[in-house]
Every structure is written in structure tokens, then in C-alpha cells.
Design goal:
Chains A, B, C, D: Keywords: Oxidoreductase, Signal. Chains A, B, C, D: GO terms for molecular function: nucleotide binding; oxidoreductase activity. 4 copies of one chain form a homotetramer. With 402 residues, chain A is α/β, with parallel strands linked by helices. Helix content of chain A is 31%, strand content 24%. In chain A, strands 16-15-14-13-7-12-11-8-17 form a 9-stranded mixed β-sheet. In chain A, a hairpin with a 5-residue loop joins strand 14 and strand 15. In chain A, helix 4 packs parallel to helix 5, helix 5 runs antiparallel to helix 10 and helix 8 crosses helix 10.
Chain lengths: 402, 402, 402, 402
């Protein structure tokens, strides 16, 4: 009998929508499901907002008191979809109450917070996960498979980007994402961490970074109404402006523990790039390229192909690829944001069912925070900065040893 | 107060999955929702199958008796997700019972069936829709907007394709899709009708066709188990084989009532093409190109752009485009099959709420059947064949009159 | 000792430029060269034009009297770069004078002319070639190699396009290309024949066609000055206009002698398409796609690739591919129009050196004219029209027989 | 009267081929030509090699004594197509003899050599140019136009790559390009300098770099025969191996004098990338993307496009774009390597005719060498390194000041 698990979702914004959809849909896709998530209760900042979220997202109950909710004995899972500033507090309380936790990314505003969160879940022995959903894209999981099976050889180089333009207009509102007090950091925490998570997943731990960090848009119109609508927000050239105290661009070189090197670029000022999460990996036996804007596809090149038929293959993911058994019956029917979140949901509940930590869990999220911290530090010092906890980097290896 | 409407879904396969996901998710995306679909009861061929579908897809009840279900007074909407052979019977019964109906495509196996279905819903005065979901892709709706606003001028030419390869292997199983008795036709009904629907939506009614229709794969292994799994099916080179009595390729020239011309190609033998629904439209003021495999994007070219900055634009759909208010807050987060079905669901319930027929409704579906019929006839005669009910084609117009 | 051969080039326009460049450059690329073309004499309509062409294109002499030139005993090769209306006359005279001939495409205005030209070269025993240069693109020759080696199996389907927009503006000048008296036909002869040549090269002889032929732009400003500048021409909305008596769009279905089928579309009204020569071929073992606008690349898919690594490969042509030994030392340095013409020149002189007819020769060109004629006939009758001289089409074969 | 200028070309390898083609072809394309280059004499290492080059490349004379040649009074132009180790010596001698000079890139092995070369041409008052041909691609010149006209606003960010794989195989031969004594450096000098040249051309002087420099392939088979054939070379897994003492990968962050920032990656280990020269530029008003492998195209996005029609445009260069008047009459006929070299040749002789230094001249080449030197230095120190002669970097500016 598949177990029904009660979910308390804290936060009813854009991320709440995505998670609620996944709770409703996951068992339809992955069947038999590892568990049946039940939308038990949703929490928002006011009773009215919570009630609206309840109706919209199909939860049984609503509340504006997350502290009470996370302690309710009938709750199995706490889902943190809030802005970054309350991640730590909620997660720690939920852990103490013995709840399994899925937390939106980035894990926290600071490494102190992240460290405390990791400690809390460790002590509580609950299952925990950070919602870096992009690695759940089937094409990304396929890249992982190729790498693990050695099909592109030893990795020399990783180049990742995350470019957006929804906030390139200096007249877009000063939402919480532009305020250090709430967000912790800007581009670094919000989107560069996705690239770091992909790098950790595909290549391994980052040991050192050397970065540039900038803030081009230094003021923005003060936001009317509290809801963060990203690219759908109203622009205003006349409203009173407040200070942006977080970064909007980070560029970095990377050294991995295993000797691979690479680079990372994340920007909110990249006109024409929407959700341009890309990576390119050069290995000794081939290369891989991915662009989330065309997320049904993975590009892969194998050097051992015949000389006259060698080139990047465009693989559309489907039943023959990771998660294919649960998604759609042919490739290119379509992987959207929904599908990535459904896969994430499946892996989270599978972890609970198997009582085995998924990845990225809070420890992984903490390591990502260490990298984010090193990125910000290096942006100030202008030097290579070690990632906290990183093992020594392998000495540069050569192709002769490959 | 948003009305809750009880849905009876007939059929619990791949399409049932997609529809169930949409019922659960639609109000989360489009809020306030036009109605709240309630997954009341699901019907499948056996009690066991129905019960499994109920649990998996989150319905309240299960049944193997669709006749009883469609007459239940507590049912508002009947959703037909079955193979084509029972579309007519169910739809006519549902109409007679006064239910609103959404029916998977193609509407029916034959024009006789389709005609009877259209008549039944006409007489019953219910709301009806055919699930040609691809026109619900935001990029396709954006193409429609450009055309309606005259931004590409008068349309000269439409070229559409639907190419697949999940059944290109002659050792894939003889599912119902390869049996005329159940499916009515092969490629023509199953996928070419999608292109016809897009052509009707974007350009207008097709008046005449001149086609070639082929069957390359004439036998297939008899299917073990009844479930159609498309590309995820097992292949077998040794199993006993049965006859394929439907087409697997259709190529046609098109003449539209408004004087535009075009072509259509649909094939199940196109290795490397997965769900390759494309169209290209040449107008007097610009051109449009779409490829569903990259469905977040629309390509558009405006001739009036400056001479040194003229070229196809790649538009990623988002908040500024059709359905953008309900989907994701920035472009390229990702339109998958799920999102197209959620939009379809929204438009269906909006039609019910407004008591106004949506498109494509059964009349549109019937016209598409007339085109399918003309395609099959022309494939036999080798001549231009008129589409039943089509008005006279405009005499060829010239650019001087544009 | 490599032989030096004296070339008389008739016509000093855009095509003259391309050919002169090839004469100068071919031995630099393909060395040892099959022969050294010597730019002996260039002919244009006036002495002044000829002298200008001589200086510009590096010829030794100039003349305005092609009749005298083609009879000169020191001339080895006659190169016909004129508008279509004098192809036949010049070619027949050159053949009678025993000269080897390369003639720009299409071979002639009518099948009568083309037949007479083919007969003349046949009787004269000279080497002859039609300058359908696009099949000399290395990526196209690679497609040919794949097909000949059976790597995509038996061909089911060929879909070819040639779309342009340089004349989509109705205010572009009425150059000779829009006048039947000079050009013979419009889009059909000028660009559709390129697609026909590619189809013949890659698939085999076309047996039957069923087409639509249109003229959308029925008048154009009468041209000032005689030079055809294609897209670089001045537009005028006020100049006096003359009639366009040739087609600007042709769409056709195709049946090949070997049982393959296909389609063809050529248009001068396709905004945003510049030199959009594409083909897609579906075979029993794979598929091929080519787009001349990205001519360094060939897309190929092999069905026998591993299930999780199957997709179109993007092959950049280079040393490992046809003509690679003579072109550039790595792929993607760049194949331009120049390179296609240099390859064409090489193959023509290699044919002379080996005294072996190249392809496409005048017989091939005549067959292409037969197809063009059938296209125009079918455009009038609305029926399938047989291509003159075509053998019977194989009965439709099936995959079971493949 | 267009002046005929005598060219002495030193070096008859792959680059000699490209230059000889350009000398023969340039006036055919750009007419009236700024000058008529006459292929007077070619020099190679032996008399036999020189004589072979003379015949192949259409020169009047041949020699193995470059010192004598550069002093001949009938020589107007010296063209240096040799390996890097003799650039300085030849250029300085040619300058002293008063010859105009075009020199292949990189200018020299070291900044000392480059400095001496720049001084020599400065003192001699001759015209000089470095053959960074990629900025002559029409699409790159179009990017320059957009930037100069302010159409993408102030530049925030430049990201450039040059990725190749012709030498990714460790069993490719140890040609001169892998020997410091001859080449000066590896990837840095050979290909990263192209990116630096593009960055200087499009954005402005680079002030500081912070890089990683690696050598993965540390030994290679000793080359049989002296000729560098790049990707067309024979591979050998068994031959005796020698040491590679130059870099094969460089990754760097960049700071420009004008406050823009960026990154650069060049690698010879990037399987699947052939001549992958790309740049992406984010400005305050738009973005530009270029990929040389698809060099007929430029991608540009203007933020001021209507909200529902905003996206990267794919511009195929043609008559409406830089150099369009001389190249082909419609876009996408094809820009190959030949065309870039023809344009380069035109600009060089135009500079001579106008007695006005072209760009990149030796001063520009020297600045590029300074950047290359800083890249190599930073690769050792792990710190930001200033580029010699660079002015102070502007303090970071903000979008509010834009």
C-alpha cells in the first residue's frame, strides 16, 4: 500500500504553485509512486493569503502561523517555498519537530544559517533536500549518466552560465531578491548557485574560485505590493527608488578537487537571455553541451565515432533516458518546468520511502553555500579563494595519464 | 464563487494521465480559475484497471461502465480519452445526457461518426471541444496573434509537418493505432490532423487537397497486453505478425478558401524526428516558423525591419505572450506537454463558464475530419479532392492587390 | 606536366565573378591540379563591358563577339555565364567548334533548346557540365556518400526546398529573371531546378510530379540599366512597371523511379529566407538533413545508434569528408560560395583530364529540364505529369522488403 | 588607373594558399579595386618547395632566399606567412627595405620581438597589418557597426571563446605549433589572440587579466616531414614522442579600460568544436552573439523591440551589411574562409592606397601580444596582471549613469 504523506507548504507564490502542481501530479507520472503527497496545509503571511493559496493550490487547510504548523503531529513533510530570509528558522524548527524537509534554493542567506540548518537535520535524522530542480531535467541526468559511464572520459573542463534579463531593466521593482537582508545575496545566491549545483553534480566538488562580482543596477523603484512577480512585474521610471545592495553579475574561474577546471558566469543583465542555464563539458573522450532553454535536448560528441560521422548529437530525451519511464511516451512531447518539478518531487519522496538521503541534500546545499561565499569573498579580494571544507586539489594531471 | 465541476474521465492511459494532471493543476496556474475541475470518476475497461487509474490519477470513484457514468446527474463534464473507436458512441451518449464534452483527437474514425457527434452536441446545446492541444502552445497562439494583427500581412503559404519515428521500427507492436477498425486511419488521423488543425487555426479553412498516402510498414508483431505505450513499447523481431491496414505517411498539397496555398507532410517513418510538428508561414509582410520540438520559441521575421537588422527573431514565450499571465513568470522556464494541456483545460472550462463554444469544437473537428477524408480519397484518386463543405477558393490573388 | 587550358568566359556578371575566382584559385586548392585554367578571354555585350571584365577578372583578352571567340583554335573551354536566353546558341556553336563546355544553370529556357544542346555536345564528343554548384558543397557530397554506402538504408522520402526573399518585395526591378523571353521560366527554372538536381543526385531520377505554380508579383518596375544585381538592386515604388510573365512559387509532390516519394517547394516570396536550400531524407536506417544557409554542416541520424545516444549528429565537413583534401585543414574554417565553385571547377577539369563525363552534364541538365517542364505542365493541368523519358516507377515497396 | 603592386609572399603552406587566393580574387570582388596585387614572387625554405608553390599559387618567380627578396626594388609588399619564429626577422628587414607588410598572426613569439617589429615599421613609415582575419567576417563587422551606432548601448560584458579539437588527440604530431622555440606559446598565441583581437576591436583595450593556463597533452609523436597540416595530419600511437612545451588551454577573466568586464576561453582539447570562435556581448540596450562556425549569421537582440516580439534576430549578412557591396548579391550564398581573406586583402591594399594605417596594424598586434603576455604571466602568478601600456581602468560604472 502506497503511503499517503501530509505536506505542509510554507509560501504560496510562484514556487508554491510549482510545488503544489508536483504534489498533485507526481503519482500520476511515477506509478506506483513512492508515496502519495497529500496537500494538507498551506501557510502564507496572512490568513487571507493563506486561504487564497489553499483554494488555488488545492490544500485541505490554511494557516498564517508556520510555527504551529510545523509542529503538528499529522504533518510528515515541510516544504519551504518562502523568500530566503526565513529558510533557516523554518527548517530548524521543522527538523526539531522531526519532519522531512524540502527547501527551496539557495539553502540560506549565509553560511552560518546553512551550517545550522545542516546540523539540525543531521541531528534530527530526517530526510532533507534542496530544490535545485535543474539537475532533475532528464537531459542533465543523461549527461550525468554519460559521465559516470565514462563515455566522455575524464573531465577536463566545465563551463557553466546562468543568464537572465527579467531584471536587466533598471526600472523593474526592488523585490526581495534585490535586498541583502532578505535574499542574502543577488545573482550569486539566486542563480549562480544553480550552476554550482550542476557543477557539483556533474564534475565534483569545487575547491577554489577566482571571481568578479558586480552590481550594475544600483537603485530600483520601491516595490508596490509584496509579491515577487519576476519578469511579469510592472516597470516604473518615476517611482521612488531604493538601493540594491546585492550583486547582479558574477564571473568566476573554478578549480575542482579532481583537477578539472572551469568557469561560471551568472548575470541578470543579459538582454535576450531568459533562463539561459548552459554547460559545456570537455572530457578526454568527448564533450557535452546543454542549454536549458532547449531542455528537451542534450548535445553529446564522442571522439570515437567514425572520422566522417563525428559531431555533436542532439539527443531528445524520452523513454530511453533517465526518468523516461515516468514522463512522456515519446521524446519531445515536452519537458517543461512542471516536469522538472515532478521529477524532483518523485526523488524526494523516494528518498523518504527508502530512508536514504537524496541529493542535493542540506549537506550539498551547504557546500554550495560555501562556494557562494567563496565567490563573494573572491569578488572582494581579487584572489583565488578556497571553498570551506574543500579537499586539496589534485595536481594538474595530463592526458598521458588519462 | 468559483464553481466546482465534476469530471468523468473515460480512459486511463497516457492521455488520461495528461488530462488528470491538467484537472489538478489548471486552477493553480490560471487563478481565479474559470471553474474548479473535480476528478469525480474515472472509467477504464475493467474494474481493476479503473481502480488503478482512480488511485493513480486521484479520482474519487472508479467504474468500468461508461454508459452508466455518463448518465449520472452529478457529472458535469465527460472527458473522452479512449482509443478512437468509442469516441462517437460515448460522445453521443454524453451529449444526450446533457454533459459538456472534451474529446481526444481525432474526433472520430470516419466522417459519418464525426457528423453524428457534431449533430448530437449541436442538438444538446452542450459545450464541446476536441483536444488538439498543440494550438494551445503559447508560441502557436503568438503566431495567431501576429497573423490576426496583420503583422505578417496576407498569408501566401503554409507548410506544415508532423514527423515521428517511434513507430519507424517495423518490429514495434501492432497497437490499436495501426488497426483501421479501431483507429479509423493511421498517420492521417493520428498526426496529420494536428497539422490540419493548426492550418485551420492559423490560415483558415482548407478547400482542396492533393495527396499521396502510403503504408511502408505492412505488418507488425501482434501486441502482447493491451496498453499502447508508443515509443516505450517493447520491440520484437520474432513475434507473430499481423497486418497494418492504415497509412504511415501522407504528403499533400493544400489550397485554402482564402487563396493561400501550402503543403503538409506527416510520417511515422522519419528517423530522428520525435514530435516534429512544424509550420512555416510566408506572408506579404513577414514570415513565421515554429517547431514544436523547441516549443518555447517562435521564429518571426518582419520585412519592415531596418535593412541591416532584418532576420528571424527567436521569441521565447513568457508573461508578454498568450497565456503568459497564468504560466511561468519568465520565458524559458519551460513549456512542456503539461503546460499545453493545462492551457487547453483552462480554455475548455472558460468556455463552459462563459457558455460560449471554444475552438476547436466538434464542428471544427468535423471540418478536420473532412480534410482527413479528402486526404485519403486523394491518395487513392491521385487528383485534387475538394473538402466537404468547403466554400469556393478565392481566385489566385496577387501581391499588387495585397 | 599539368596542362594549361585556355578558357573563354562568356558573361561578366555575378556568375562571371564566381567562375573567374575559381579559375584563379582552383589549382591552389587542388594540387596537383587536373589542369591549370588560363583566363584567356572574357566576352561581354559591349567592348567596354568586356574590357572592364577583363581587367577586373584578370583575363588576357576581351571581346564582345562570342561567335568569333568560340571558334578560336586556341580556346579549350567555353564557359557560359550569360542569361538563359543565349545558352543554347552559344553552347551549340561551342560544341560544333569542339570546345569543352561548362554552362550555368538552368541549361536552357525550354526542353527544345536543352535537347538541341545535349545533342550538339553528344555529337561533338566534348566534355560538358551544367553548373549546379550546390551539389558540390562538401556536406552534400557527404550525404551522397552516406547514401551510397547504405548508411541510411533505402530512401523512403525526399523533401527539398529553395526559398528566397531577395525578390519578395514587389518593388524590386524587372530584371531578366522575371521575363519569360529571356529566362524561360521563373522560380522553376532559376531555383527549383537546383532542388531537382539535388534530388537526382541523391535519390535518383524523378518520374512524376504533381505541382502548383503561382505568380504572386505580377508587375515590377522596369529595370534601369541592364545589370542583374539580385538582392543588391535598387527598389522603386514609383517607376513605370512591366509585366512579370514567369512564376515565383512552385510546390510539388514527387515520385522517383526507384519508388521513393517526396516534395519540393521553391519560392521567391519567403521573407527571411535568403538562400534556403534544404533537404531532408528519410531512409530505412536513418535520416539526413541539410540546410545550405549552414552549409558547413550536415545533420545525420543513424537508427542503429545506442538507444540512449540516438539523435541527429551535426557534422562539420573538413579533411575527413569529400573534397576535404583540397579545401581547408580543419572543419568550420569555412565553406563559402567560393569554395563550392572551386570544387565545381576542379571536377570539371578533372573530367576533361580523364576524358570522362562529369555529372551533372548536359544529359543530366536535360533530364532536369524535363522535370521543370513537367512541373510547369502539372501546374496548369492540376494532375500528375510524367517526366519525359522517365522509366516506370517501381511499385510501392514496403519496409518488409527493405 | 588602378595601381599594380608586386607582392613577395614568404611561406607557401596553408596560409600561403589563403593569401594567394585572395591576391587573385580580391579585385574581382571589390571593383574598382584599391590596387591590383601581383603575385610576383613566393619564397619557401627550399628551391624545390618554392618552385612548387610558385606553380601552385600562380606566382611569377620563386626563391628560397627571403633576405634577397625583401630588398628587391620591384617588390611593394611583403607578406609573411611563415611560422612565428621568423616573423620578426623578416618584418624588420622588410620595413628597413621600405616595404608594406602584412604579417600572419600572432605578430611574434614574444613581446620583445613584437616591440621591435612595431618600432621598425614605425620608423620606416610603411603600411602594416596583422592578419587577424576573423574580424573581417561581415557578421563581425556588423557587430562593430551596431556597437558604434549605440544600438546595443554601453557594453557591460564580453565573453569570447576559441575552441578547437584538431589537436585534442594526444597522438597528433608535434608540429611547430607545439614547440615554444618556434611558436612562442601554444593556445594563447595561436588562437586566444584571435579572441583578444576581437575584444579589442569590439569593446576596446583590455587592461587586466586573471587567468589559468594549462598543458594537458604533454608529449606528442615527433613529426615526420616538416609540413603543418593541422587536422589533416596523420596520427600515430607508436612513434617516438617529444615534449610539448606550450599551453593547450587558457581561461581568463578580463577587465577593459572602459569598465566593461568579461571572460575568454581558448582550448585545443574541446572535442566537437572545430573553429568555435564565439562572442557574446551584453550591453545596456541589447546583446550580440556570434559563432564563427555559423559565420554567415549574427545574432542581435534589441531591448526596445515590442514586448511581444523581443528576441535574438538571426541576421544573415549580405548586400545591406559591411563589405556587402563587394561580396555576394544575396545573403547566405556563403561566407567562407576565402571571403574573410579577400576582405582582409581589400582592406590592406585600401590602406596602402590611402596611406592610412589599417587595423589591426603592428601597434594593435603589439597590444595583443601584451595581453598574451599578461595571460601567460597570470597563469603563473594566479593573480590579476596588468596589460603593459594599459591605461587605468574606469571605476565600475552603474546602469544609472549609462
Amino acid at each position: 500500500m502506497t503511503r499517503v504523506m501530509n505536506v505542509a507548504m510554507i509560501g504560496g507564490g510562484f514556487m508554491g504553485k510549482a510545488h503544489a502542481m508536483a504534489y498533485a501530479s507526481m503519482p500520476m507520472f511515477f506509478w506506483p509512486a513512492p508515496a502519495i503527497p497529500h496537500r494538507k496545509i498551506v501557510v502564507d503571511v496572512t490568513d487571507a493569503a493563506a486561504e487564497a493559496a489553499r483554494e488555488r493550490f488545492g490544500f485541505e487547510e490554511a494557516s498564517s502561523d508556520w510555527r504551529a504548523v510545523v509542529e503538528r503531529p499529522d504533518i510528515d513533510v515541510v516544504d519551504i517555498c518562502t523568500p530566503n530570509n526565513v529558510h533557516a528558522e523554518i527548517a530548524i524548527a521543522a527538523a526539531k519537530a522531526g519532519k522531512h524537509i524540502i527547501c527551496e534554493k539557495p539553502l540560506a542567506r549565509t553560511i552560518e544559517e546553512a551550517r545550522a540548518m545542516a546540523q539540525a537535520v543531521r541531528e534530527a535524522g530526517v530526510i532533507h533536500m534542496v530544490a535545485f530542480n535543474y539537475r532533475r531535467t532528464p537531459a542533465v541526468a543523461l549527461a550525468k549518466r554519460y559521465i559516470e559511464e565514462g563515455r566522455v572520459g575524464r573531465i577536463l573542463n566545465f563551463r557553466g552560465t546562468y543568464l537572465q534579463d527579467w531584471s536587466a531593466d533598471p526600472d523593474g521593482p526592488l523585490s526581495w531578491r534585490f535586498q541583502k537582508r532578505i535574499a542574502g545575496s543577488g545573482t550569486t545566491g539566486d542563480i549562480a548557485t544553480h550552476v554550482v549545483d550542476l557543477a557539483h553534480y556533474l564534475v565534483g566538488p569545487i575547491a577554489e574560485v577566482n571571481s568578479m562580482v558586480h552590481t550594475y543596477v544600483k537603485t530600483r523603484p520601491i516595490q508596490q505590493g509584496g509579491v515577487d512577480k519576476l519578469g511579469a512585474s510592472e516597470k516604473s521610471a518615476t517611482a521612488e527608488r531604493g538601493e540594491v545592495d546585492v550583486d547582479d553579475e558574477v564571473i568566476s574561474m573554478l578549480r575542482f578537487e579532481n583537477g578539472a577546471v572551469g568557469s561560471l558566469e551568472a548575470s541578470r543583465n543579459a538582454w535576450g537571455r531568459n533562463n539561459f542555464i548552459t554547460f559545456e563539458i570537455h572530457g578526454t573522450e568527448g564533450s557535452i553541451h546543454f542549454n536549458y532553454e532547449r531542455r528537451d535536448e542534450l548535445q553529446v560528441m564522442f571522439r570515437n565515432d567514425p572520422a566522417d560521422a563525428r559531431g555533436f548529437r542532439t539527443i531528445y530525451t524520452g523513454p530511453a533516458h533517465p526518468y523516461g519511464e515516468g514522463l512522456w511516451p515519446i521524446p519531445a512531447l515536452g519537458i517543461g518546468y512542471s516536469e522538472t518539478k515532478i521529477v524532483e518531487c518523485r526523488d524526494f519522496f523516494a528518498a523518504i520511502a527508502q530512508n536514504k538521503l537524496p541529493s542535493p541534500n542540506f549537506e550539498d546545499g551547504l557546500r554550495t553555500e560555501y562556494v557562494a561565499d567563496a565567490l563573494l569573498r573572491s569578488g572582494e579580494t581579487g584572489h583565488w579563494e578556497r571553498v570551506e571544507g574543500a579537499a586539496g586539489t589534485e595536481r594538474q594531471w595530463t592526458r598521458a595519464q588519462a
